[in-house]
Amino acid sequence: EDQVTQSPEALRLQEGESSSLNCSYTVSGLRGLFWYRQDPGKGPEFLFTLYSAGEEKEKERLKATLTKKESFLHITAPKPEDSATYLCAVQGGGATNKLIFGTGTLLAVQP
Amino acid sequence: DSGVTQTPKHLITATGQRVTLRCSPRSGDLSVYWYQQSLDQGLQFLIQYYNGEERAKGNILERFSAQQFPDLHSELNLSSLELGDSALYFCASSPREGRTEAFFGQGTRLTVV
Questions:
Q1: Is there a contact between A97 and B106 if contact means CB atoms under 8 Å apart?
Q2: A45: buried, middle or exposed (CB in 10 Å: 19+, 13-18, 0-12)?
Q3: Nearest to B99 among A31, A43, A45 (CB)
Q4: Phi/psi at A84 (nearest 5 deg)?
């Protein structure tokens, strides 16, 4: 069964203190790994798609990387506005595009 | 703004009642997905439609049903509601089958009292 595990569950950083969030996955026939950002009471906001091991994507202070077993979301010099829950999801093989989500990492960046 | 529209934003109803949640996908998107998010669980996949046809079912209860109409909007029907059905319900859409990301609406917050 496809499974996604994110760690840590919660992370508190000082503004400017860089860190990484982890997403480990078990999936048969990975078609894509997705990162989303979710603010309280809002819908998940798409950030990145990674398709194959070794791939990297960047957007502002965020950089996502992918290996055969896990993905990392690196946050460089975070700002308070980066505070949110970051969700990882995988899309496996088969006839459906459904995404299997992890439970997320709640990031709090203090000024 | 993702381009996915969900109505209503909030819904409060009593146990045993039936409600309908509506989703309009992004222009041109053929796939619609429904997810449930409760406090103690992450985003749980419920069901997917592609161009009017059911594509996949997840952990969707028999009391719940969905459909996608010819204009591609979708409705999620929840009946015989229980307190435990209180959650955020999200709709997402994607343009095609294959490797593609999904874009989420802002959700409907359902409270069953």
A1: no
A2: middle
A3: A31
A4: 180, 175
Strand partners, A10: A106
Is A43 within 8 Å of B42 when comparing Cβ atoms? Answer: no
- Asked if residue A8 has a cis previous peptide bond (ω within 30° of 0), the answer is yes
Is the backbone of residue A49 left (phi > 0), alpha (psi -120 to 50) or beta? beta
pLDDT digits (tens, 9 = 90+) for B67-99: 999 999 999 999 999 999 999 999 999 987 665
Choose among B90, B98, B100: nearest Cβ to A43.
B90
**Measured between alpha carbons, how far is A99 from B97 in angstroms, rounded to an integer?**
12
Stretches where chain A sits below pLDDT 70 are 95-96
- Please say if the pLDDT value at position B1 is more than 90: no
Closest Cα in chain A to B97: A97
